[in-house]
Amino acid sequence: MDLEIAMVLISNTLSCVFIALQIFHVKRNPETLSCISLVMLVILSLGHMIPLVLNFEALFLRNRGKQALMLNTGGWIEANEVTIRIVTMVAFLLQIRLLQLVWTSKTSEGIENGSWVGEKKAAFVSFLLYILGGLGALLLNWIRKYSLWGGLWSYGGLVLDGFLVPQILLNIFRGSAEKALSHTFYIGTSAIRVVPHAYDQYRAHNYPTFHVNGTYYYADHNADFYSTAWDVVIPLGVIALAVIVFLQQRRGGRWIVPQRFRELQLYEKVPTINNE
């Protein structure tokens, strides 16, 4: 339990550091603000906000078993939970600040600007993927007779694991090679999403029955997909997304697109000359 609480605190503290470094990055390079995906920032903001809401709700709905646990441990768990809430709140406020900076930059350029066109296309494709994925998760849980709400909750964690998807799509539609995201931000945040799956396998082999009232403090099985297979597939997917963003920021947003489509896009951008 001590280890899991410490890992939650470390994870949330690192989130604050990575977001602060990204804010510092866009302050030094304001031209990159319009190249950052709003959908990605909204997803990350919700990832901090929802645990806060649930934790505050737990203050009023704490069950007797948890109360007894607090008494038996001298209240240190409750003190640590308060610390976790404070750090999570700081991360949420920093994320909102970054979102506000990007929103202000995009709106100041005008709604018909190329950054908004690319943002709309990326948002449409992202939401389409999320809806299809959500329906798939519901169908799978219905077939297995699992809780539909639990399936959606875990799917939300999967969406958070793939937080870079909207940014990758925006880079493709814009064809941008701007270093919109600092390396520490997207690599660090990706690492935060990967480590719980590695820890889940460690916990399964060393502490197979360790939990408090059926829940975990870190790598909660209700907040993401966890199993031997998922703990391999999800980290590989997160790493792949980070590599794609790294290469997009070096070679251009459309390097992942087949060559003939890139040539077609360049042809469409060539201005026509009127001989009259």
TrEMBL record:
Its main location: membrane. Keywords: Membrane, Transferase, Transmembrane, Transmembrane helix, Ubl conjugation pathway. It is found in: Endomembrane system. It is an enzyme of class 2 (transferase). It is a multi-pass membrane protein. GO terms for cellular component: endomembrane system. Residues 1-261 form the SWEET-like domain. This is RING-type E3 ubiquitin transferase.
